[in-house]
Design a protein that fits this description.
Length: 975
C-alpha cells in the first residue's frame, strides 16, 4: 500500500483502483449497479422540498444541500458559500480513495494529480443575487479551479491540480489527461472527479429555447422516438495508478485503461455544436491504436448516447463502421447509454459512463439501454440490448470503450480492459483472534460505520454480490481486519473490536452500533500519547504462560529463544522447556530468569506491532528486562544479571517475606517503627500502596494488626525479602559476579526506580544492580512524574497484570490523561489479550503498524466513510448581527472571562455558528486566513491595539487568544 517512486510508464495500462458515485436513486456504486442491472428509470420531477429547483423533469439527487463540513474542517459559513458541486466532488473524492484503500497519510506529500470537472455555477449566480458574493463565495463557487485545489490542500497533494472545461466531454478528457500524466511520470497517482447539479436558472432556459431537451426529460438513445436529451445530477470520481505500481503495492485493480485519445471536430462539422462523423471516428481509431486493441475485439461500448436525433445517428454510424471492420459475423458489439437511466449528467457524464463500464466489466454483465428498440436495426456491427445481457463470450479478457463528446466539438474515447488475474495468496496461518479497528470524525458516524462493518462481515463482499461470501473466516476475515487497519485513515473517535471469529466480531460491532456496548472512543486532544513500558517484579508468573504465543507469534518465539539461549549459557537449563512443564515456578532461580525472558519477548511483540516505548520503567527485578529492552543491556548481559543474582539470592539470603498493603509510605513507616530492625518499606507503588519487606514473623504480626483495622493486605509470592537488610549477604558476591558488566547508553530512556530519575544506561553496572536489590522501589513517584507530563499509555509487560491498578491510581491522582493496559492475563487466551491491549493503544491515539498485526493480509473492500450531512445553503450576510455584537463588545471588558466571552461571540458571528470551543485553535474551527483578517480588523477597531496575525493563525487556542488580548489592553484585572 502507498505510492511507489514516480517513473516513466510509456504505454503501460493505467489501473483504476478506486471509484465512487452519487447519482439519482444511487447513493453509492453498489446501488448504482442494482439500478442498472434492474433497468430502473430514475428520471422524475424534483422533490417538492427542493425549493431551489422548479418543476422540471430530470434525474435528481435526493439532496444537494447536504454536506459533512465538519469532516473536512470547513466552517459553516464557508460551507454555505461552496457550490454544491464542489461539496459533492470533495466527498466523492474521499469515497473513491476509501474504495482504493488509500488513507490520507499515504498520500500526503506525494505527486498525486487532481483533475476536476464542473461546468457553470448557478449557485454563484444565487450568491450574487443575494449579496453573498464575498471572497468565500468567489473561491467556493465562482472559481471552479479551487475545487481541485481544495482537494490538493486537504490531502497535501503536490501534483498538478486543475479544473477542466470541455463541455459535456470534460470529465472523460480529465481521465485522458490524467493517464498521460501518469505515463509520463509527472504524477504518482491521479484523482479525477466531477459533479453536476440542476438548479433554477443556469442552463435550463437556454437549453429549452435551443430545443435540445426532451419534453419528457428522458434520453432515448438509439430510439426512433429520440427527441432531445434529459438532464441529470450526480458526482463521480476515479483513482488511477500505473498498473505495475498498483500490482506491486497490493492494490485492488478494478479495471484498466488500455489507451485513450482526445480530439476536436475542427471545421469538419456543420457548426460548432453539431457532431462530426470524421471527428468522432478519428478519435475512436486513435484510442484503439494507443491501446493496442483491434476494434473488432471490443465487446461493449458505453456511448455518449444523449438521445438527440442527429447525435445518435452520427455516433451509431461511426461505431458501426469502426467496430465492424474485421468483426466476425453474428458477433455484434453491445452498445448502451447510462443516460437512459438517470439523464445526461453533463460535466460528469464521461466519468459516470466509465464507472458504469467498470462495474459491467467486473460483473461481466451489460445492463439494458432503456426507451429504445431491441437489437441493432439495420446496423451490422452494433446492438443495443433491451435487457441485462451476459458479457459476450470471447477468448481473452473483456474489452470495452467509453465515449464522451462535447458541445465544444471535443471528442474523447477511452478503451477499458478487464483487470489482470491476480494469483491467490498462499494459505496463511489463521490467528486465534482478530482485531478490527474502526474510526470516525464523530460518534454518530462511528456507530453507523460499526453497523456497516457488521453488515459487511455478516453478508460478505458487496463487490461480488455473492451471499455465500458472508461465511467469512480465516484468511478472508484476516484480510478485512488488515484492510481496516492498513487501508483506512484513523480518525479521532475510535473503536477496536477483538473476537476469535467472524460471529464474535459481528456481535460486538452490532452491540456498539445499537448503543449496547459502551463506546471505547477517544475524544478531545489530538496529541499522541507517550508510550511507557512498565516491567513488574515477581508475582505475575503462572503455569502455561507464553505457550500460546510461542506457537502463534513468530516474533515472540524468536525473541524468547534468543533469551533462552542466553539463560541456558548461564544456567544449563531451558526457559522454553520450563514453560512447557506443568509444575509451577517456585524457586527464585527459575522464576526470575523465566519472567525476564517472557518480559523481553512480550516487549518484542509490542514493538513489532509499532508500539514503540518513549520510556521504560522497571519495578524491582523487572528493571533488568527494562534495561534489556532499552538497549542498555544486551540479551547476554541481561541474562547474566538476572541469572547470577537470582542464584546468589537462593544461596545466600535467608527466608523472608513481602506483603502489599493499602497504606501510604508515611503511614507504613509509622506502623513499622517497632520493627525497624527487622522490617522496612520495600516498595512505594503509589500514595496509598506500599510493600512491606523483611522478617516473616514480624511481618505476620504487622499484617494481622493492619487487617484488624480494615487495611487490605496481600502476600507477595516470593521466598525472600527484597529491598530489605536481609539481602545484604549477597553484596560482595554480586559485585564480583557482575564486575565484567559493560552497559551502554541504550536507545530508549529508562526511569530508574532506584534513583527516581531518568538515567543513562552506562550507570547500570554491578553497583546499580545491587542497589536495585537492596534499596526501596520508588515506583509511585516514577509513574506520577510521567502521568503529569501529558497523555500517556502505560503498557505492563508481564504474563499477568500486577501493576495496572497502581498505574491507574497514579494517573487519577496526578490528574493526568492516560490509560494502563496489560499484555496477557492468567488463564485467558494470550494472543487475544495482547490484541485487546493493542486496541486500547490505538483508541488512545498511539501508533500501530497494522501491516505487522495481521501479516500476509491483502486488501479487500471495507465500508466507506458515512458522511454526516447537514444542510448548507446561502444565507444573507449577518452584518447586522455582527454590528450588534461589535457595538456591545467593548464596554465591560475587564476580566479574562470577559475577553473569553468576547472572543467566542466574534468567532461565532464570523463562522455563523454558536458552537465555539475556546480550547481549540481558530483554524481548527474553520477560521481561515480570510476570516482571521476580518477578526483582526474587528478586534483592532474595538480595542485600539495591534493584533499580530500569528495570534489568530498560530497553534494557540482561542482561550490563549483571549488571554493575550486581555494582557495587551493593559487591564490587569484578574478574571
Amino acid at each position: 500500500m502507498g505510492l511507489t517512486p514516480t517513473a516513466r510508464h510509456g504505454d503501460q495500462p493505467i489501473a483504476i483502483i478506486g471509484l465512487s458515485c452519487r447519482l439519482p436513486g444511487a447513493p453509492d456504486a453498489d446501488r448504482f449497479w442494482d439500478l442498472l442491472v434492474n433497468g430502473e428509470d430514475r428520471v422524475a420531477a424534483p422533490d417538492a422540498a427542493r425549493t431551489h429547483t422548479r418543476h422540471r423533469i430530470g434525474g435528481y439527487l435526493d439532496d444537494v444541500s447536504g454536506f459533512d463540513a465538519a469532516f473536512f474542517d470547513i466552517s459553516p459559513r464557508e460551507a454555505g458559500r461552496m457550490d454544491p458541486q464542489h461539496r459533492m466532488l470533495t466527498e466523492a473524492t474521499w469515497t473513491a480513495l476509501d474504495d482504493a484503500g488509500l488513507p490520507a497519510a499515504a498520500l500526503a506529500g506525494s505527486g498525486t494529480g487532481v483533475y476536476s470537472a464542473c461546468l457553470g455555477s448557478t449557485y454563484w449566480d444565487l450568491l450574487r443575487a443575494h449579496d453573498a458574493n464575498d471572497m468565500h463565495g468567489l473561491i467556493g463557487s465562482g472559481l471552479h479551479g479551487t475545487a481541485a485545489g481544495r482537494i490538493s490542500r486537504l490531502l497535501d497533494l503536490r501534483g498538478p491540480s486543475m479544473a477542466l472545461d470541455a463541455t459535456c466531454s470534460t470529465s472523460l478528457l480529465a481521465v485522458h489527461l490524467a493517464c498521460q500524466g501518469l505515463r509520463s511520470g509527472e504524477t504518482d497517482l491521479a484523482i479525477v472527479a466531477g459533479a453536476n447539479t440542476l438548479l433554477d436558472g443556469g442552463y435550463w432556459d437556454s437549453l429549452t429555447r435551443g430545443r435540445v431537451l426532451a419534453p419528457d426529460g428522458r434520453s432515448k438513445f438509439g430510439s426512433p422516438a429520440a427527441n432531445g436529451y434529459g438532464r441529470g445530477e450526480g458526482a463521480a470520481a476515479v483513482v488511477l495508478k500505473p498498473l505495475a505500481d498498483a500490482l506491486a503495492d497490493g492494490d485492488r485493480v478494478r479495471a484498466v485503461v488500455l489507451g485513450s485519445a482526445a480530439g476536436n471536430n475542427g471545421r469538419t462539422s456543420i457548426a460548432l455544436t453539431t457532431p462530426s462523423e470524421e471527428g468522432q471516428e478519428d478519435t475512436i481509431r486513435r484510442a484503439h491504436r494507443n491501446a493496442g486493441v483491434h476494434p473488432a475485439d471490443v465487446d461493449y461500448v458505453e456511448a455518449h448516447g444523449t438521445g438527440t436525433v442527429q447525435g445518435d445517428q452520427v455516433e451509431l454510424a461511426v461505431l458501426d463502421r469502426v467496430l465492424g471492420e474485421g468483426r466476425p459475423a453474428g458477433r455484434r458489439c453491445l452498445v448502451g447509454s447510462v443516460k437512459t437511466n438517470i439523464g445526461h449528467t453533463e460535466a460528469v457524464a464521461g466519468l459516470v459512463g466509465l464507472v458504469k463500464t467498470v462495474l459491467a466489466v467486473e460483473r461481466r454483465t451489460v445492463p439494458a439501454t432503456l426507451h429504445g428498440p431491441a437489437g441493432g436495426g439495420d446496423r451490422a456491427a452494433v446492438e443495443l440490448p433491451s435487457t441485462a445481457t451476459p458479457w459476450p463470450e470471447r477468448h481473452g479478457p473483456a474489452l470495452a470503450g467509453v465515449s464522451s463528446f462535447g458541445l465544444s466539438g471535443t471528442n474523447v474515447h477511452v478503451v477499458v480492459g478487464e483487470a489482470p488475474p491476480v494469483r491467490e495468496p498462499d494459505a496463511a496461518h489463521r490467528p486465534s483472534a482478530y482485531l478490527l479497528p474502526v474510526s470516525a470524525r464523530c460518534p454518530s458516524a462511528l456507530r453507523q460505520l460499526a453497523g456497516a462493518y457488521a453488515q459487511r462481515l455478516a453478508e460478505g463482499d458487496p463487490t461480488t454480490g455473492d451471499p455465500t461470501a458472508g461465511d467469512l473466516d480465516g484468511d478472508d476475515l484476516a484480510d478485512v481486519c488488515f484492510s481496516a487497519g492498513t487501508r483506512r485513515t484513523h480518525h479521532e473517535h475510535r473503536l477496536a473490536v477483538v473476537a476469535p471469529d467472524r460471529q464474535g466480531l459481528v456481535r460486538r460491532l452490532r452491540a456498539y452500533a445499537d448503543g449496547v456496548l459502551k463506546p471505547m472512543s477517544r475524544t478531545g486532544s489530538h496529541t499522541a500519547p507517550r508510550i511507557v513500558f512498565v516491567f513488574p517484579g515477581q508475582g505475575s508468573q503462572w503455569v502455561g504462560m507464553g505457550r500460546e504465543l510461542l506457537a502463534e507469534n513468530e516474533v515472540f518465539a524468536a525473541r524468547l529463544r534468543e533469551c533462552d539461549a542466553a539463560v541456558r549459557a548461564e544456567t544449563g537449563w531451558s526457559v522454553v522447556d520450563r514453560l512447557h512443564e506443568d509444575a509451577p515456578l517456585t524457586s527464585v532461580r527459575e522464576v526470575q530468569p523465566v519472567l525476564w525472558a517472557v518480559q523481553v519477548a512480550l516487549a518484542a511483540v509490542w514493538r513489532d506491532w509499532g508500539v514503540e516505548p518513549d520510556l521504560v520503567v522497571g519495578h524491582s527485578m523487572g528493571e533488568v528486562a527494562a534495561a534489556t529492552v532499552s538497549g542498555a543491556l544486551s540479551v547476554a548481559d541481561g541474562a547474566a544479571v538476572i541469572c547470577r543474582r537470582s542464584a546468589l539470592i537462593a544461596e545466600h539470603c535467608g527466608p523472608g517475606a513481602m506483603v502489599a498493603v493499602q497504606v501510604g509510605e508515611r503511614e507504613a513507616a509509622r506502623v513499622l517503627e517497632p520493627f525497624a530492625d527487622r522490617l522496612c518499606v520495600g516498595v512505594v507503588n503509589s500514595e496509598h500502596a506500599t510493600v512491606l519487606s523483611g522478617d516473616r514473623d514480624a511481618l505476620a504480626e504487622v499484617t494481622e494488626s493492619l487487617r484488624s483495622l480494615g487495611v487490605r493486605c496481600r502476600r507477595v509470592d516470593v521466598e525472600f525479602a527484597s529491598h530489605a537488610p536481609q539481602v545484604e549477604p549477597v553484596r560482595p558476591w554480586l559485585l564480583a559476579g557482575l564486575a565484567g558488566l559493560r552497559p551502554t547508553s541504550g536507545s530508549v530512556p529508562l526511569h530508574s526506580t532506584v534513583l527516581d530519575r531518568v538515567v543513562d544506561g552506562t550507570r547500570l553496572d554491578a553497583d546499580y544492580w545491587m542497589a536495585n536489590l537492596r534499596e526501596p522501589v520508588r515506583f509511585g513517584s516514577a509513574v506520577a512524574s510521567v502521568a503529569v507530563s501529558g497523555p500517556v499509555v502505560f503498557v505492563e509487560i508481564s504474563p499477568h497484570p500486577v501493576l495496572v491498578p497502581a498505574l491507574e491510581d497514579c494517573v487519577d491522582r496526578a490528574g493526568g490523561w492516560g490509560a494502563a493496559i496489560a499484555s496477557t492475563h492468567r488463564d485467558r487466551p494470550q494472543f487475544a489479550s495482547m490484541l485487546e491491549g493493542l486496541g486500547v493503544v490505538h483508541v488512545e491515539g498511539g501508533a500501530v503498524d497494522w501491516a505487522r498485526v495481521q501479516t500476509g493480509g491483502r486488501y479487500v473492500p471495507v465500508p466507506a466513510y458515512p458522511f454526516q450531512h447537514r444542510s448548507f445553503w446561502f444565507t444573507r450576510p449577518r452584518r447586522r448581527v455582527l454590528e450588534d455584537r461589535r457595538a456591545a463588545a467593548s464596554p465591560g471588558l475587564r476580566t479574562v472571562a470577559d475577553f473569553e466571552r468576547y472572543v467566542r461571540d466574534q468567532v461565532a458571528g464570523l463562522l455563523h455558528t454558536e458552537d465555539v470551543d475556546l480550547d481549540r485553535t481558530a483554524t481548527s474551527l474553520g477560521l481561515d486566513s480570510l476570516l482571521a483578517m476580518q477578526l483582526r480588523s474587528i478586534v483592532e477597531d474595538h480595542l485600539a491595539i495591534v493584533v499580530p496575525p500569528r495570534l489568530l493563525l498560530g497553534a494557540g487556542s482561542l482561550r490563549h487568544l483571549a488571554g493575550e488580548l486581555h494582557a495587551r489592553t493593559g487591564l490587569a484585572v484578574v478574571g
